[in-house]
Design a protein that fits this description.
Elements (H helix, E strand, L loop, with lengths): L11 E4 L5 H12 L3 E6 L6 H9 L4 E5 L5 H15 L4 E4 L14 H29 L2 E6 L12 H21 L4 E8 L8 H4 L2 H10 L12 H8 L10 E4 L16
Parallel strand pairs: 1-2, 1-4, 2-3, 4-5, 5-6, 6-7
Helix pairs in contact: 1-8, 3-4, 4-5
């Protein structure tokens, strides 16, 4: 390995939920840092374009089918990744979903969809991949959380519950697997404009309200996450585990427009 602790050359990484959105930004960042990738989606055909893009960067990309709500699918993916790549060094547990409804309108199925995907899926994917990491006494697991891992927002009850659970799960797994040379951290984006929430950004009143609460005075761009994911996936973070890294422009400070005149 390189003396540069951020260099991922020779590392093998899984990125789940890589058919669109932040998963692709995470994958690009890891590939540019030198990692080869296993990319997953519920539909393997949805990965064709991204596979070509990663290969265009000179890195290997292995597409695998994965439904994180299906235990058998998780086991198949983990086994296939080990067989295809020989080992897995890094897992970015990104696959997720959301249902936006007032709390009184949330159904039993809404709740199960979000929790089964975001929390149960995160755990069982980590468990499946960690088995090989334990044998090799090395691993970097990056669970994707959210600013809702630490803050609650109206209309997002199951999502907030799931992401808060990911934060707590991260700490538990870090304590469980640290003895095996595995670090487990949570990368928690703030409000980012993605395909999943683009409708919110079409509401100028909501956007103005959001920006007013962010100290850096802008919503996040997916590229703002690239350095953070490489850091947590690399040896630069070798002595960091069980932590939640908020990449949110400062909104988690609880900031609102100051009532004092700035210098």
């Amino acid at each position: 390995m390189s003396q540069n602790p951020f260099d991922l050359t020779g590392r093998m990484a899984i990125v789940t939920g890589a058919s669109r959105g932040l998963g692709q930004y995470f994958g690009r960042a890891l590939a540019r840092a030198g990692a080869d990738l296993v990319i997953t989606s519920r539909s393997i055909g949805a990965l064709d374009a991204f596979r070509a893009e990663i290969e265009g960067l000179g890195r290997r990309a292995v597409p695998l089918e994965l439904d994180v709500r299906d235990e058998a699918s998780i086991r198949r993916m983990a086994d296939a990744a080990e067989e295809a790549c020989g080992r897995i060094d890094i897992l970015v547990n990104n696959a997720g979903c959301n249902v936006r409804k007032p709390a009184l309108d949330i159904t039993w199925d809404d709740w199960n969809l979000v929790l089964d995907t975001n929390l149960r899926g995160t755990f069982f994917v980590a468990q499946a991949v960690a088995r090989g990491m334990v044998e090799r006494h090395y691993g970097r697991i990056v669970n994707i959380g959210s600013v809702t891992s630490v803050f609650g927002f109206a209309g997002l009850a199951p999502y907030c519950a799931s992401r808060g659970g990911v934060k707590q799960l991260t700490m538990s797994l870090a304590d469980d697997w640290g003895v095996h040379g595995i670090t487990v951290n949570c990368l928690a984006p703030g409000w980012f404009r993605t395909e999943q929430n683009k409708v919110l950004y079409e509401n100028k009143e909501w956007l103005d309200y959001l920006v007013d609460r962010i100290p850096l005075k802008r919503p996040g761009q997916p590229t703002d996450l690239e350095g953070a994911v490489v850091f947590l996936a690399s040896d630069a973070s070798a002595y960091i585990t069980g932590q939640t890294l908020l990449v949110d422009g400062g909104i988690s400070t609880g900031a609102t427009r100051a009532m004092v005149q700035r210098a």
